[in-house]
Amino acid sequence: MTELMKLKIEELEKKNDQAMAGGGADKIAKHKQGGRLTARERVDVLFDPGSFVETDRFVTHRCTNFGMEKNKVLGDGIVTGYGRINGKLVYVSSQDFTVTGGSMSRTQANKICKVMDLALKNGAPFISINDSGGARIQEGIESLGGYADIFTRNTMSSGVIPQITAIMGPCAGGAVYSPSITDFVFMVENTSYMFVTGPDVIKTVTHEDVTKEELGGATTHAQKSGVAHFTAKDDKHCLLLIRELMNFLPMNNLDDTATISTKDRPDRIVENLNNLIPDSPKKPYDMLQVITEIVDEGYFLEIHKFFAQNIIVGFARMNGRPVGVVANQPQVLAGCLNIDASRKAARFIRFCDAFNIPIVSLVDVPGFLPGKEQEWNGIITHGAKLLFAYAEATVPKVTLITRKAYGGAYIVMGSKLLRSDVNLAFPSAEIAVMGAEGAVNIIHREAIAKAKDPAAEKARLTAEYEQKFSNPYVSAELGYTDEVIEPALTRKRIIDALEMLRNKRDINPPKKHGNIPL
Question: Among 33, 58, 236, 454, which residue's CB has the most CB atoms within a 10 Å radius?
Fold first, then answer.
């Protein structure tokens, strides 16, 4: 090595050290209180060891307002680059709160946009780790322009590459819209929050007193708004959850998710299911038990676990192949569909369809949730989102009715006439316009009223209706149900259907895009 090269390398090492130092030892120490990780530590946990390659490490901002020219840090408060997660190429940006509070500058936005462009060109997922005080006020409109550039790229990448956001600190104002466009949002309990306007502004405008945690913490967005798909105990847990999710996702919309070997036999008989459905149609049971009984190794990664719990969505594998599961939950609101459940399921179905993931639907739905609040808040429009998503999807779709499937809710939940490929039913399935008791009240109202014993006559007519209509065989006779199966055979029959549909080809009419009811 020449003397000159030695000096050049020493200069490079010095700059690397400066960039790695972020906002300095004091700010890093303060940031790490409470178990939080630095921007670089987060990247190290997220990626396979030794695989991360950083880009734009030496970039600095160009702002000269308010003395900012004296406050330049290499990297400008964000770490960007690419690496591997479980062997897959992934691009990342990770905001560094120790540098000007991770605030968004024009330069920081340029760094993010560069890796987003690379992710789109190379057909690889993009992960954004957000930890920022918001727009860099000293830069004014340039900072806002940076957000807009990111939002545009989020939109162009939607449905082309998976996009994931981890909120690992503050995320407020305009910054919240990028996470909302992405496919999955992770939040960390007690240390992350999201809101358009903060508690101080709310108090000034509406005179409401609310804390940051109550307004936009992880629990709030996981349970009330549905903005957060996952919550984590701490930073490390959050990053490991992302790695777990990545196991189920393809690289892009032209890629197929990998099939992995499993010791769980595809023809495994599930005897427990023969005893799971209660004799009484009014008695609840846990649909999660059905899911874990039939999927590979009993492993199910639930999405939106704490939001709209009357419907279940998530990923599993069947015979090694990833599937998206959508299932009514009889334990919550009797499995009725409401506004939140419709939104939750529709968004999940559209993600699966965009990325070639087959959809398995498990149905036990007595109808849409009645009530003026549901009607006034647009259950018609929101319920139509779910219908639209199922009808639009061209991936393999397999539907199993375990018990109730009434009226419009039957149609919406992946029925044959919404282009479902294989529709199965248990012998306990009740496929009808409505429940027997309600139907009898309408059809035989006068006969019941005139009867000597109205209660006995109603009971007789209800039993007669149940025998004639509240079963899967009328639907099977019409071809709307392909097969009535013994519950123990559920895993085998669903896997048989998925294997048969492996090379399914289906296209929608040529158009710019549909107009989903929003």
Answer: 236
